[in-house]
Amino acid sequence: MTALKKENQIIFYSIKGSTIKKVFIIDLVTGTGIYYIVKFISASVLIGMIGSVVGTEGIKKVFKCQLQ
């Protein structure tokens, strides 16, 4: 039986500050805003949560289409 020698690898990813800022604005701020608007209109927490997720994912897809 031979012993396999494993090499330890450390991988570093660098993320631009603008990317972090964009994710923060789209996911947290916009998602929260959409949640409260939909919750206010429908008076339902569940519908507000679903609307928030659908809204933020829709905005992300629109931004991806504009970049292409």
TrEMBL record:
The chain crosses the membrane at residues 34-54. Keywords: Membrane, Transmembrane, Transmembrane helix. It comes from the Bacteria. This is Uncharacterized protein.
